[in-house]
Amino acid sequence: MEWEAPAVVLEARPYGEGGAVISVLTEHHGRFAGLSKGGSSRAQSGLWQPGNLVEVRWVGRLADQLGHLTGEMVHPTAALAMDDPLALALLNSACALATDALPEREPQPRVFAALLPILAHLHAGGAALVDDYIRWEMLLLEALGYGLDLSRCAATGTTEALDWVSPRTGRAVSAEAAAPYKDRLLPLPSFLHGAQAERDPKAWLQGLRLTGHFLARNAFGARHRPVPPARERLEHRVADLAG
C-alpha cells in the first residue's frame, strides 16, 4: 500500500532513536500519520516543521498500519513565518486545531484547499490573513458537522442587519430581533458575511470569539478535551492588538 500527495505538516513527535511520528494533512487522505526514520535528526527536522508544505510518500504493508513517510520540501512556511509573531500564531493555531479536531484518514478537500493560500502568504505578514484564517475556522467547524448558519435571521427569516449569533444554535439573529437579548448573544462581524477584507483587530477578536465558542463547546467539549493552547495564544495576541 502506498500513495503520494502534497501535504501540510501538522505535528512531529520524536519516536525511538532519531525517528519521528509525523502527522500531515492531505486533500484526499485527510489527517494521516506515518513514521519518518531520522525524522527528528538535524538533517530532517527542518523538513517536518508544522506548517511546511511538502510532497510526501506513504508506504505500508497494510492500509491500517502506521506505515512510513518520506517527504520533499515544497514551501518552507515555518521558517518564513518566524519573523512575524502574528503569522506564527496563526500557523501554530491552524496546525494544532487540525491535529486535534480532524478525524484520521477522512478526506478533507475543502479544509485543505482553504488552508493552502493562508500558509502560502504568511511570509507577507499575518495581519493580511487573520480574516481568511477565521473563515477557515468556520469551514473546519462545518467539516466537523458543526457549521454555523449565517444566511438569515433565526427569528424572522430576514437577511438584513444580521449582527448577532445565537450561542446555542449557531444561527444568525438580526439586530431588531436581538434587541431584547443582546447580552446573551455573540456579535457577528460583518466580514463573515462575505469575502471582503477586514483589517480591524476588534472585528478579528469578535470573529475569533465566535468560532472559539463553538470550537470549545462542540469540536472539543463534546470529547471532553480543551481547546489547544496555540489557539488560545492566538486569541490573546489578537486581544492585545484590539487593545
Q: Describe it for me?
A:
Helices cover 37% and strands 22% of the residues. It has eight helices and eight strands; from the N terminus they run βββαββααααββαβαα. It has helices spanning 42-45, 77-81, 85-101, 109-120, 130-143, 175-178, 201-220, 229-242; strands at 2-15, 19-26, 30-36, 53-59, 68-75, 162-165, 172-174, 186-187.
Q: What is the residue-mean pLDDT, rounded to a whole number?
A: 96
Strand count, sense and barrel status of the largest sheet are: 5 strands, antiparallel
The string of secondary-structure elements, in order, is EEEHEEHHHHEEHEHH
The total strand number stands at 8
Instruction: Give the termini distance in whole angstroms.
Output: 53 Å
Low-confidence parts: none
Helical run tally: 8
Structural class: alpha+beta
- Beta strand %: 15-25%
Helix content: 25-40%
Strand order of the largest sheet: 3-2-1-4-5
Short account of what is shown:
The chain contains eight helices and eight strands.
Helices and strands in order:
Blueprint: E1 2-15, E2 19-26, E3 30-36, H1 42-45, E4 53-59, E5 68-75, H2 77-81, H3 85-101, H4 109-120, H5 130-143, E6 162-165, E7 172-174, H6 175-178, E8 186-187, H7 201-220, H8 229-242
Antiparallel strand pairs: 1-2, 1-4, 2-3, 4-5, 6-7, 6-8
Helix pairs in contact: 3-8, 4-5, 5-7, 7-8
Task: Summarize this structure as a short list of keywords or feature phrases.
243 residues, five-stranded antiparallel β-sheet, 8 helices, 8 strands, elongated, ARFGAP/RecO, DNA repair, DNA recombination
